[in-house]
Amino acid sequence: MIPEEARALRNAAPQKGRSFRFTRPITANRPILPPPLPPDSLRKVAVVSERTSPTRSKTPHAADPLTLDDDATLHAMGYPRKLTRRFRAFDNFAISFTIINIISGIFSSFGFGMNAGGPRILILGWIGVSVMVLFVGAAMGEIASAYPTSGALYFSAGKLAKRHQGAWSWYTGWLNFVGQVGGTAATNFAAATFIQAFVSMRWPSYEPTPQQTVGITAAILLVQALANTYTVRLVAVVNRISVWWLLIGMVVIVGALALIPDHHQPPSFALHFVNNTGFTHALYGGMLGLLVTSWTFTGFDGSFHMSEETVKATVNAPRGIMRAISYSAITGLILMLALVYAIRDYGHAASADAPPVQILVDALGQSTAQFLLLIVIGAMLFCGLANMTSNTRQIFAFSRDGAMPGSRWWHSVSARTRTPVKAVWLAAACPLVLVLPGWWSHTAFTAVVSVNVVGLFLAYAVPIFLRLRLDDFQAGPWNLGRYGKPVAAVAVAWILISNVLFMLPQASPITPASFNYAPIALAVVLVIATVWWFATARRRFQGPVSYGRPDEVAAMDLI
Predict the structure, then answer these.
(1) Cα within 13 Å of Cα(536), Cβ side
(2) What angle do CA 489, 491, 493 make, to 5 degrees?
(3) How would you classify the pairing of strands 19-20 and 116-117?
């Protein structure tokens, strides 16, 4: 029997202009659902789904066998379909490629690398870290193929845990949430800073202030939220544009740096080592330089979060993750080499407020540097938009399972656009809250958003670690076969190493301005999550919920 509240939802007819949200999900005796069914079973369930859902059978999209299999997989995991599947393979790849964003990542952190290891670590470190991130992406992709849901990391953590499924899901979900919110805030704040740098170059009399930076960031968040409230088709189009913006922009920047200057550094310059961190041990300074690449390669879980809107998600989501990392590694290395060999006065550039911009000015002149800076700003804006999109889907899924305050509100979906509009505005409001301390102090802002990368990487580690412990892991169509466990082991080891680096002091002497606040920010998040868990959450949240059997869930589809 379908519970009364589920039956009421199933019989509810969608009305134009209204938002829909699930009533309280089935919570009694929630079993751990089995992994996605084999292909033959999925096809059988797909037929049941088609027959029992009149609204789906009337739409042309319902006849698409790929969509039916995707929906059957979702139903097997206990969820009705609420979001529109408009993402193709390229679109799924595009969102992770946009969030990784080689232009934004390199231009934001290149100056740190110039002082922590110099060209040797910038180039060789990029290659080495890229390889390790591929291990992380492969391990995550295997899990994404098995559990293609918007919940992504926290959902799979709950399913892969042998015990305490609710706790594993809870901590993973909140680490993922704060990491994504911090990423959106940091990216858009950087975009605002670069916008002010462009204005200062164009009109030298302009003097940027912290208040203006916060105001510009708020305006950027507003525009990105408006874009995300429209259909997922628009988001897909924007992400496609972003991919070409990044690729063409990279070619333009590299071409300009290779062809215009009359002087380049010799080939041996790639092995030049610099340690201006203030720490005497060269090894320590060089290891800190690895952070440049690690900071860049974040957010590729975006392909995982968009699974419920991706056609043939069990294959296209993991492929999207791997392609995004691979293409970013190659194109990023080319951009890194172009910047390194275009350096004229190393000391002057390394001490500048924005070293990459100074390299452009020294090598190309003021006018050309201004034009290229517009490419960088555009890349950052696209990155922030994609970050918000991914965060929105995580909020939607996390609240669907009842983990967030006001969950019934946040996972409602607009009947007109088929997007979680309320979650979009939460994904815009939270970064704005993190940005506000920058009104008074840049150090305070840095302290608040420092949990970004640490939170994300720990959220990546949890489901991979749990998959490593599981002897009977049921892989999806995209899998690593017998190499699954070794790859997962390497991925977890690298995440632990990189997280140690993320939390180490990054400059000496240590002052309030140079202090690394990541450990404190992470501790605050974990303390709040722990107190909340033992106070109330453990009694109402036991991990991913099931809304019924596959045939029952299919009858609840709102599309």
Answers:
(1) 6
(2) 70
(3) unpaired
Q: Taking CA 505 as the corner, what is the angle to CA 503 and CA 506, rounded to the nearest 5 degrees? A: 105
How far apart, in whole angstroms, are the C-alpha atoms of residue 294 and residue 58?
Answer: 47
Give CA–CA dist 357/371, Å, rounded. 11
Helix axes 232-259, 210-229, angle to 10 degrees: 130
* Residues 427, 99 contacting (CB under 8 angstroms): no
For CA atoms 407, 409, 410, 416, give the dihedral sign.
positive
Q: What are the two backbone dihedrals, phi and then psi, of residue 381, each rounded to the nearest 5 degrees?
A: -65, -40
Distance of alpha carbon 417 from alpha carbon 389, whole angstroms? 14
Q: Are 495 and 460 in contact (CB under 8 A)?
A: yes
Q: What is the dihedral of CA 87, 90, 91, 95, to 10 degrees?
A: 140
Domain chopping of the chain, boundaries? 86-541
Q: Which amino acid is at 198?
A: F
Q: What homologous superfamily is domain 86-541 in, according to CATH?
A: Amino acid/polyamine transporter I (1.20.1740.10)
Phi, psi at 64, each rounded to 5°: -70, 115
Q: What is the pLDDT along the chain (559 residues), one digit of tens a residue?
A: 333 333 333 333 333 333 333 333 333 333 333 344 343 333 333 333 332 233 333 333 333 555 558 888 888 888 888 888 889 999 999 999 999 999 999 999 999 999 999 999 999 999 999 999 999 999 999 999 999 999 999 999 999 999 999 999 999 999 999 999 999 999 999 999 999 999 999 999 998 999 999 999 999 999 999 999 987 788 889 999 999 999 999 999 999 999 999 999 999 999 999 999 999 899 999 999 999 999 999 999 999 999 999 999 999 999 999 999 999 999 999 999 999 999 999 999 999 988 999 999 999 999 999 999 999 999 999 999 999 999 999 999 999 888 988 878 887 887 787 888 999 999 999 999 999 988 887 777 777 777 888 999 999 999 999 999 988 899 999 999 999 999 999 999 999 999 999 999 988 898 888 888 989 999 999 999 999 999 999 988 988 888 888 888 788 776 5
Alpha helices in 401-517 (DSSP H): 407-410, 421-435, 442-449, 451-469, 484-503
pTM for the whole thing?
A: 0.85
- Cα–Cα distance for residue pair 465/108, rounded to 1 Å: 31
3 state SS for 168-183: HHHHHHHHHHHHHHHH
How far apart, in whole angstroms, are the C-alpha atoms of residue 60 and residue 20?
22
User: Which residues are bridge partners to 535 per DSSP?
Assistant: none
Query: Tokens 């996390």 appear where?
Result: 398
Residues in the chain: 559
Nearest to 167 by CA among 445, 466, 487: 466
